[in-house]
Amino acid sequence: MARVTAEPTLDRTMTLGDGRTLAYAEWGDRSGRPVLLFHGMPGSRLLCPDREATESAGVRLITLDRPGYGRSDPHPGRTLLDSTNDIRELADHLGLPAISIIGWSSGGPHALACVRGIPDRVTAVGLAASPGPWTEAPAIWDSLAPAVRALVERRIADPDEALPAIRKRLQWYADDPDSIFRGAGANAEQPDDRLLADPEVLEPMLTWLREGARQGTAGYVEDWIAELGPWGFRLDEVTRPTFIWWGEEDDLTPRVHTDALASGLPGAHVVVYPGEGHLAPVTHWAEMLAAVLDPSVGTSAP
Predict the structure, then answer these.
(1) Confidence of residue 302 (pLDDT cuts 50, 70, 90)
(2) Cβ atoms < 10 Å from Cβ of 253
(3) Structural domains in the chain?
(4) What confidence tens digit (pLDDT) does each residue in 177-209 have?
(5) What's the CA gap between 280 and 267, in Å, rounded?
(6) N or C: which end of the chain has fewer CB within 10 A?
(7) Cis peptide preceding 42, ω within 30 of 0
(8) 261: closest CA among 140, 161, 175, 173?
(9) Res 70 pLDDT > 80
(10) How far apart are CA 165 and CA 179, in angstroms?
């Protein structure tokens, strides 16, 4: 039975020091150990991969809208490291001790940025189906679609000139956020499709995407630029226990990303799931939580 949910226990906003609004949600045990989940690109705060596993682990799960998504104000020009200031303020606002962080898909670079930017606030980090930095791995650059490479090169040469083209490329999200899952469930041979054939998985994920598009492409554009530009740090500067999870049939994040992360992150523990795809957190959330909560247990897992 699917236990994915888009209905948090608490759904609130706070005002950051620079006056921007930051939206966040909470799930599970509010007195439990805090775990922060960074959503993918695009997406929003409204998704918990497995409510029952979160509650059983005694976890206080916190999700947030990155700037420009959902109810969080945009922060034009933000970098990955800039976003760590928002996490520090959120942790202070909630009175959190040091936290474990999981980044799903494009949430991964933001999770790593927190380890680099606010290492005193992070105990461990997990990366699920996460991209790596093309600046450290030529194979990642080669794996990008030619149109994406061309747009990245335009952005490097002239950021202002490239911005309209980036917005145009991502406009589909503002026009029709449901389109990414249209036809989902039709291919029983594909593991993600098998999961999305279940309305109890598909409907929460549609809610998650629709909420992210509340402000059109604002958050998506900021994320795209931050992820596909220089990250502002090297992988070998990440100094906390790190876990990498990847599904062998993940069509969205090719193996070259996992390989680059595994070779660049000191002492990273890698788990590859045969027969799984990009939605591996839906089926392995309990295992992922256990790993970041107790890294000694996570590194001994088969």
Answers:
(1) very low
(2) 23
(3) 10-296 (3.40.50.1820)
(4) 999 998 877 777 899 999 999 999 999 999 999
(5) 22
(6) C
(7) yes
(8) 140
(9) yes
(10) 20
